[in-house]
C-alpha cells in the first residue's frame, strides 16, 4: 500500500511540475475609447411654467413657497444616498447659476431623493412670494466617485462642473 501511494505521489509530482507557463508576446494596442463619464448625467435644459403653491414647504423660511416636482430616473438610490443632484437656473443674460441662489430677496432652492427632485421658490423674509413664472433649468446628476475624483470642483459653477465631468446628455426630466 505504501508503494502504491509513493508511486502515485511521485507520478503526480512529475505531471504537475512538468508543465511550465510561458507568457506570449504583447498584443497590439487597442482602439482608444470615447472620452466621457458614465457616472455623470447632464440633462437637457427644461422650462418650468407650472408651479404649485404651498404654505408648508419643509426647510423654507416662512414655509410659503412655489414648487415644482420632477420624476428623474437618473436619481438612483446610490445618488440619493452618496451622490449629488445640482440644479442650475438660466438667467435672462444666458448665465447658469447653481441652486440655491438668492436674487432680490427671493430664493430658488432644491431638494432631491431617489426617483426625482423638487425646485422651490420663496421670499427670503418669509412673506408670500409672487409666482416665479417661466424659468429654465438644467440638472446634473453626479455620483459619489465623480465627486471624489474632482475634490476641488465648485459644483455650483455650471462651467466648472461641465469641464470636470464631461457630462453626457440625457433627456429632460418629467414633471
How would you summarize this macromolecular structure in one to three sentences?
By secondary structure, the protein is an alpha+beta fold.
Describe the overall structure:
Residues 5-15 and 33-38 have low confidence and may be disordered. The relative contact order is 0.24. The chain is 21% helix and 33% strand. It has one domain: Sandwich (Immunoglobulin-like). It starts with a helix and ends in a 5-residue tail after the last strand. Strands 1, 2, 5, 6, 10 and 11 form a six-stranded mixed β-sheet that branches. A five-stranded antiparallel β-sheet has the order 3-4-9-8-7. The longest helix is centred in the first third of the chain and has 16 residues, at 2-17. It contains four helices and eleven strands.
Main pleated-sheet profile: 6 strands, mixed
What would CATH call the architecture?
A: Sandwich
Give helix and strand order, one letter per element, not per position: HEEEEHEEEEEEHHE
Computed over alpha carbons, the radius of gyration is 28 Å
pLDDT < 50 stretches? 5-15, 33-38
Which word captures the global form?
elongated
Give the CATH level 1 class: Mainly Beta
Strand-pairing-aware structural class: alpha+beta
| Strand tally | 11
Helix content: 10-25%
Count of separate DSSP helical elements: 4
Q: Main traits of this protein?
A:
six-stranded mixed β-sheet, single chain, Immunoglobulin-like, 175 residues, five-stranded antiparallel β-sheet, 33% strand, alpha+beta
Amino acid at each position: 500500500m505504501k508503494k502504491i501511494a509513493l508511486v502515485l505521489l511521485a507520478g503526480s509530482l512529475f505531471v504537475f511540475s512538468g508543465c511550465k507557463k510561458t507568457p506570449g508576446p504583447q498584443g497590439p494596442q487597442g482602439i482608444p475609447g470615447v472620452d466621457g463619464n458614465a457616472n455623470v448625467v447632464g440633462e437637457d435644459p427644461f422650462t418650468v411654467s407650472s408651479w404649485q403653491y404651498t404654505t408648508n414647504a419643509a426647510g423654507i423660511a416662512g414655509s410659503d413657497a412655489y414648487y415644482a416636482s420632477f420624476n428623474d430616473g437618473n436619481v438612483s438610490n446610490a445618488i440619493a444616498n452618496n451622490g449629488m443632484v445640482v440644479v442650475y437656473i438660466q438667467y435672462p443674460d444666458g448665465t447658469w447659476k447653481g441652486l440655491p441662489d438668492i436674487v432680490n430677496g427671493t430664493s430658488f432652492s432644491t431638494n432631491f431623493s431617489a426617483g426625482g427632485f423638487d425646485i422651490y421658490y420663496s421670499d427670503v423674509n418669509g412673506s408670500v412670494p409672487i409666482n416665479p413664472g417661466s424659468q429654465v433649468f438644467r440638472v446634473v446628476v453626479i455620483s459619489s466617485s465623480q465627486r471624489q475624483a474632482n475634490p476641488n470642483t465648485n459644483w455650483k459653477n455650471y462651467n466648472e462642473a461641465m469641464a470636470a465631468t464631461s457630462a453626457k446628455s440625457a433627456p429632460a426630466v418629467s414633471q
